[in-house]
Amino acid sequence: MRRKNLLSDLDWFSIALYVILFTLGWFSIYAAEYDGVRSGVFDISSNHGKQIIWIFVSLGIGMTILIIDSKFYTTFSYLIYAAVMLLLFSVLLFGTEIKGNKSWLVLGPISLQPAEFAKFAVSLAIAKYLSTLNANLRSWNSQIVSFIIILIPTGLILLQGDFGSAIVFGTFLLVLFREGLSPLYLIAVVIIVALSVLALIFEFYYLIGAVFLIGLIASYLLRKNRQAVAVLVIFTIFSSVYVYGVDFVFDNLLQERHRDRINVMIGKSGNDWNVNQSKIAIGSGGLEGKGFLNGTQTKFDFVPELSTDFIFCTVGEEHGFIGSFVVLSLLFGLLFRIVHVAERQRSKFSRIYGYGVASILFFHISINIGMTIGLAPVIGIPLPFFSYGGSSILSFTILLFILLKLDSDRLSVLR
Amino acid sequence: MDFFKSRMLVIQAIFLLTLMIFLGKLFHLQIIEKSYKELASQNVVRRIQLHADRGIIYDRNGKLLVTNDAVYDLYVIPRQVSKQLDTLKFCELLNLDVDFFEKQLMKCFQYSRYRPSLFLKQITTEDFARFQEYLHRFPGFYSELRTIRRYPYKSAMHVLGYVGEVDQNMIANSKYYKSGDFIGINGLEKIYEEELRGTRGSKFIMVDVHNRDKGPFKNGALDTFAISGKDLRISIDITLQMYGELLMQNKKGSIVAIEPATGEILALVSSPTFDPNLLSGRMRGENFKKLSEDTLKPLYNRPIMGFYPPGSTFKPLMALIGLQEKTLSPGSTYSCRPGYHAAGLTIGCRPHPTVMNLSESLQQSCNAYYCHVFRNILDQSKYKNTQESFAVWTEYVNSFGLGQKMGIDIPNEMGGLVPNPDYYNRLYKNQSWKSLTIISLGIGQGELGTTPLQMANMTTAIANQGFYYTPHLVKNIEDLQSEKLEKYRTPHYTKVEQSKFPPVVEGMFQTVEKGTARASRIPGLEACGKTGTAQNPQGEDNSLYISFAPMNNPKIAIAVVVENAGGGSKFAAPIASLMIEKYLNDTISTQRLALEKRMLETDLIHIADEKKELAVRP
Question: What is the predicted ipTM?
Answer without folding.
Answer: 0.90
